[in-house]
Design goal:
The complex is a heterodimer. In chain A, α8 links the parallel β7 and β8 (230-235). Chain A has an 8-stranded mixed beta sheet with strand order 1-2-4-3-5-6-7-8, sandwiched between helices. In chain A, α2 (88-101) packs across α3. Chain A has helices at residues 54-60, 88-101, 114-125, 147-158, 163-176, 178-190, 193-196, 217-226, 242-245, 247-264, 267-271, and strands at 13-19, 22-29, 40-43, 66-69, 107-112, 130-136, 204-209, 230-235. The N and C termini of chain A lie far apart (38 Å). Chain A has a single domain, classed as Rossmann fold, CATH 3.40.50. Chain A contains 11 helices and 8 strands. Chain B contains 16 helices and 16 strands. The two termini of chain B are 39 Å apart. Classes of the chains: A alpha/beta, B alpha/beta. Chain A binds chain B through residues 89, 124-126, 190, 192, 195-196, 198-199, and chain B through 92, 192-193, 196-198, 285-287.
């Protein structure tokens, strides 16, 4: 495959900021040259952390600034206490508060898996938060909203994971704690993303890897249909963790989409 | 069915209305005011007991529900929200009602298939005072009230003393009515979980107010309550009040309540507006439309709801000439729908309610049948109608006018009625299948046709803040 070769990205800085009641750690990449595009905020999925987005972040950061927060309870953002796993709504609230604290608005929200549920909730609540939305392998397919079915899909998905991803996941699961993982998963199961999608009136890209056992093609198409301004891109051979496993391929379609949005809709950013 | 938290009264109007609504949403009736049916046979014999003893039994039944004033600081009022989460069937709804209590709203919510979250609930607090000494009632409740409010920063307290209708109960308990000032404590969670974006919040706002005495920032004392006597009669006395106090052998001939200094939402029915701001915030965040249903008195909504049911029955091509008059907490929307009855709700059982019902009937096509479920509170209070007043209303039926198992000669002491009304409802024929809920669009269609109603305003607020009047 050919495409623009990634220029060497800057090394990320760690930042610690408050998000409402919580302290949130994040990595930020500043591009070598400022291009004025919307900054990217990467929202991670269930139990993993911002680490999981590093491969994609490095590739997107050649052209724009990229932020990868660890949501409260995950990665390096240790609080809230272990026994209090935040529901989807509160994670979205924390994301909004964190963006507000850092002066980020009209961003490009790029989310993966359960992170899509958080990101859509955040945009529903605060339409001015994002000017573009990218949903990479969005969960949770309402037809599969059963524990047994989720477990089956997840076990199939494990087989698609690379060794590096598995090591990262083991570390992140240990940091978040198994109880938090289970409770957060239950919150994810109760959350109905499909009810929010018709109300998110912003340019949106849905990305599905054709080898993703968790997100079926029918559901990915529905997500794109439900979004008033949604389009679907299928990545041949890509898996569920597209941002980690197929970063180059993913960065290419995401960057092209964001460039297009920045070019056709710069007004909101200027107005904000 | 789950029970409300122990500190809430079973005879609280809001709790009873939430339970009746939930029963209808589950497709069940609400017999005997939510009490176990095994109690029906003994209660139905209550009228055999002499009246004085019956009053004592009524008092004891209330005393069993009281909470000690010493426990106020340990009460978490947000448990009410948790209870409501369990009470209503766990499914998404097209709309969710919340706000002021009204029996008419019970029937409206049942028609629309929407749950309803009360703003106000009632905590009976153990406190023996003489019924005709409102000042002592106020003073004895100050400390307990403070403890309750310190533990519950999202709530405000309306301490109420009504020596007229609540004469029996206020001997042993005092009325703490608490109102939510925001959507915390489970309500926001309920809405976010069960109302998808794009849904409608029906915000019931009752404008009834009362002149109260301020005790603290979120604490007022209300002398008197909405009923047969007017507010002025509570504050200043009248001949009717003198007669009443004489009838009950009171040493007083008027009530010397504390001087009122603040106009507040009425303790039981009035809407505290602080809640509205929070509702509009959630609506903005989650893309809900807020339909504000604003009415002066809680029963000002009754004619609109009755007409809506009649309109709906006609649309379904079933007869719409049976009127079911309910009062206070005796509501059974499931039975109304099954029997094709047009529900007309009375706030209580006093003369103002009879007058409102007469006006309603004057302006409607006659009904073939009129059935009456009449709340019994055991006091020959100021402004009580005579049995003949009720008979006159029932006589307006073209075919049959009857009570639902109430003995009008025993009114208002016929406690056996509570055990009988459900049986009487079950016997009504014919019955119809439970219809699917009325959509908000159909409700709009009705409102467009029905035109304005006295003392009712309906306004939609879109998520972006645009407002549109539907009825004014």
């Amino acid at each position: 495959m050919t495409g623009p070769a990634p220029a060497p990205a800057a090394t990320p800085r760690w930042q610690l900021a408050s998000a409402g009641r919580w302290r949130v750690a994040s990595r930020v990449w500043e591009p070598p040259t400022a291009r004025g595009g919307r900054p990217v905020v990467l929202v991670h999925g269930l139990v993993v952390s911002g680490d999981y987005h590093v491969p994609l972040a490095e590739r997107l950061a050649t052209r724009r600034s990229v932020h990868a927060p660890d949501l409260p309870g995950f990665g390096r953002s240790a609080d809230p206490p272990l026994e209090r796993a935040l529901p989807t709504r509160d994670l979205a609230r924390a994301l909004i508060d964190w963006c507000d604290a850092g002066g980020l608005s009209d961003v490009a929200l790029v989310a993966n898996s359960f992170g899509c549920q958080i990101a859509t909730e955040a945009v529903l609540r605060r339409p001015d938060l994002a000017g573009a939305l990218v949903l990479l392998a969005p969960t949770m397919d309402p037809r599969a909203r059963r524990y047994g079915e989720q477990l089956r899909r997840w076990r199939m998905e494990m087989k698609t994971q690379s060794g590096a991803l598995q090591r990262l996941m083991v570390r992140d699961y240990l940091r978040a704690g198994i109880p938090r993982a289970l409770v957060t998963f239950r919150h994810a199961m109760h959350d109905r993303i499909e009810q929010r999608l018709p109300h998110l009136d912003l340019p949106a890209l849905v990305v599905r890897g054709t080898n993703d056992p968790i997100v079926e093609d029918q559901w990915a198409a529905e997500v794109a249909d439900l979004l008033p301004r949604g389009e679907l891109r299928r990545l041949p051979g890509a898996t569920h963790a597209v941002n980690h496993e197929q970063p180059l391929q993913t960065a290419r379609v995401v960057a092209a989409f964001l460039d297009e949005v920045d070019a056709t809709d710069p007004g909101r950013r200027a107005a904000a | 069915m789950t029970s409300p938290p122990p500190f809430v009264a079973d005879f609280d109007s809001a709790t009873a209305m939430a339970q009746a609504t939930a029963a209808a949403l589950r497709g069940e009736d609400w017999p005997a005011l939510g009490n176990p049916r095994v109690l029906e046979p003994p209660v139905s014999l209550a009228n055999l007991i002499p009246r004085k003893a019956r009053e004592q039994l009524f008092i004891v039944s209330g005393a069993l529900e009281t909470t000690s004033p010493k426990k106020m600081g340990g009460i978490d009022l947000d448990e009410i929200g948790e209870w409501l989460l369990e009470l209503y069937p766990d499914r998404p709804y097209p709309a969710v009602g919340l706000g002021s209590s009204s029996g008419a709203a019970v029937y409206l919510n049942a028609a629309l298939g929407t749950p309803w979250l009360p703003q106000t609930v009632f905590l009976p607090v153990r406190q023996p005072v003489h019924p005709d000494d409102p000042t002592s009632a106020m003073e004895s409740g100050i400390e307990a009230g403070r403890a309750l409010l310190d533990a519950n920063p999202d709530w405000q307290l309306h301490h109420m003393h009504d020596a007229n209708q609540d004469r029996l109960m206020v001997r042993i308990l005092t009325y703490f009515r608490v109102k939510r000032r925001n959507l915390g404590g489970g309500y926001e969670q309920f809405i976010a979980d069960r109302l998808p974006p794009g849904g409608t919040l029906l915000l019931y706002e009752c404008r009834t107010t009362w002149n109260t005495t301020r005790i603290g920032e979120r604490h007022v004392f209300q002398h008197g309550a909405v009923g047969g006597a007017t507010e002025q009669e509570f504050h200043e006395g009248s001949e009717r009040v003198e007669d009443y106090l004489e009838r009950y052998d009171s040493p007083k001939r008027r009530w010397d309540g504390p001087e009122p200094d603040t106009l507040s939402p009425e303790a039981e029915w009035g809407f505290e507006e602080a809640l509205r701001d929070d509702v509009l915030r959630v609506a903005r965040e989650r893309r809900y439309r807020v339909r504000r249903i604003v009415f002066e008195g809680p029963d000002d909504l009754s004619p609109l709801v009755a007409d809506l049911y009649r309109w709906w029955y006609r649309r379904r091509r079933i007869p719409s000439n049976r009127l079911m008059v309910s009062s206070f907490v005796i509501n059974d929307p499931y039975r109304a729908l099954r029997t094709g009855s047009v529900p007309y709700w009375m706030r209580f059982n006093m003369l103002p309610s009879v007058d409102a019902l007469r006006r309603f009937l004057d302006e409607r096509e006659p009904f073939d049948d009129i059935h009456l479920a009449l709340f019994q509170h055991g006091v020959d209070a100021v402004g009580i109608p005579s049995p003949d007043d009720w008979r006159e209303v029932l006589a307006r039926a073209r075919r049959e006018g009857s009570t639902l198992g109430a003995d009008l000669d025993e009114f208002p002491h016929d406690f056996a009625h509570y055990a009988r009304y459900s049986r009487a409802l079950e016997k009504l024929a014919p019955t119809y299948p439970l219809p699917g809920p009325l959509s908000i669009e159909e409700f709009d269609e009705f409102l467009a046709q029905a035109g304005p109603y006295e003392h009712v305003e309906i306004e939609d607020v879109e998520p972006d803040g645009d407002r549109r009047r539907l009825v004014a």
